[in-house]
Amino acid sequence: MNLLVEKGKLYTKNMVVGESVYGERLVRRRGAEYRQWDPRRSKLAAAILKGFSVTLGRDSTVLYLGSASGTTVSHVSDIADNGKIYAVDVAPRVMRDLLFLAGKRKNIFPLLFNANLPEEYSNIVEGVDLIYQDVAERNQADILEKNARLFLKENGTCMIAIKSRSINVSKKPGVVFGEVESQLREHFRVLKKARLEPFEKDHMIFLLVKK
Amino acid sequence: MLTPFEKDGKKFSGPEEAVHAYLGSKEKPVHVGDLEAVAISKGFVRSRDDFVRYMNMFSIELTKLRIKERLSPLTIMAQVVSGVEDIDTATNMLYERLGEIYDVYFPEANRKMNLETMAEMLSEDPQRKMVAKKMKVRDSSMGIEVDDAEISMMKSYASSLKDLLVLRTKLVKYVEDTMEGMCRNLSALCGPLLGAKLIAIAGSLEKLARMPSSTVQLLGAEKALFRHLKTGAKPPKHGVILQHPLVSGARNRGRMARALASKIAIAAKLDFYGGEFIGKNLLKELEEKE
After folding, report:
1. Is B74 exposed, middle or buried (0-12, 13-18, 19+ CB in 10 A)?
2. ipTM given for this complex
3. With CB atoms counted within 10 Å of each terminal CB, which end of chain B scores lower, N or C?
């Protein structure tokens, strides 16, 4: 396992030894180099510290929606070092950062596409073990459903990070999360859910499997 | 090295060629559940490692091309507009600080200088005798006497300020020319700088062209809009389009903002999708409204 939890802190085994991706701390443990994984910068790290089981192995195939500049993607790439990460984002600006990251990490496949239109990349992405979604769109549940229908393997899992403020700023987060959950329950079974406080405000993360 | 592969009698030696073949292909693309297994069984790649390396290079090449498609000189121009604003902030700070400094030496002249004259005068020669003559004030002063070190420091300070003002002029010229060339309608309707500002806030001309006029009306007033949505405060009537003389000078600003926004929505669509030039007519229709 390339993931290490030590005194409430998370680390992943560095695939590119000696290099820090976004200024995170590098440490030596068990005779190898590890990169510290900050739960305040990465919702996946926060979720793991909140007790989510990591449905991600060394050989996993992952569809990562909303990869941004690749802060979290880099750690997923560490964990699934023998896997494949299809990293999708719409913004050219952050995609450039991701291209440089993918140049050094062969298991990352950067794709400039809109996660809302999975048909456009359905001939590139294959069946995956995990869909991780962190996009700031209003129809987040809808996006996950569309992608899961196309790409999620039968025994695959989904993780989705919901930011209540990008769905509706005027409603209370609890109300928004309730609505999203009932939307998700139409297509998925909820294995675990948790709010990400104190790491992240007004965020919730769900672990899901196909119904 | 990657395995070269064949398809329809054509040989592809690397991912770049594969990307071009992929983009040029007329076949309807299909989704393959286990792409890796298919690729290996068809002899496309030899092993998992081969496949991973291939997909990595393929997606990088494809994404490079797709990024290029989304960029144009307007992307640069949007940044330059923000650059002009950065310079305004910077020059104001430098002007205030230099004023504080010069006020100790020659307050009588300092009080009469604005940003441009201060940059001009002090970068030439900050000494009282010279400045007094040009500013037409007496050179006797309540200020203290200073050494060459202070004089030369003030001079360098002022030359940097002056350089920034020169740069600002150049950037504005660049924005004007770019807008004139690529967004004629928008430029004629609301002036090159405001037009460029709108593109910058929207993110791109394409995004601006796809916006409904109600959104255009409030671009730049996001804070007030969200305050309205969150707390029920009064909704904003206009965003940056307030900078348009027709809106800022209107008796009923909300009404004019609404009208201008709808014309901007039209102008942006014409500019992005390549339409005729009717920017001047749009402006005239607005002027008749007031």
Report:
1. buried
2. 0.93
3. N
Residues spanned by CATH 1.10.287.4070 within chain B? 75-174
CB pairs under 8 A between A and B: 64
Q: Say if CB A74 and CB A50 are below 8 A apart.
A: no
Per-residue pLDDT tens for A58-81? Answer: 999 999 999 999 999 999 999 999
Please enumerate residues of A whose Cβ is less than 8 A from a Cβ of B. Answer: 84, 86, 92, 95-96, 98-99, 102-103, 106-113, 122-127, 150, 153, 169-170
Q: Which residues of B touch A (CB under 8 A)?
A: 29-36, 52-53, 55-56, 58-60, 62-64, 66-67, 70-71, 226, 229-230
Query: What is the domain-level CATH number for residue A196?
Result: 3.40.50.150
CATH superfamily, domain B183-289, is Nop domain (1.10.246.90)
pLDDT tens, position by position, B246-257: 888 888 888 888
Residue type, A150: L
CATH topology of domain B75-174: Helix Hairpins (1.10.287)
Global pTM value = 0.84
Residue A9 main-chain phi, psi, to 5 deg? -115, 150
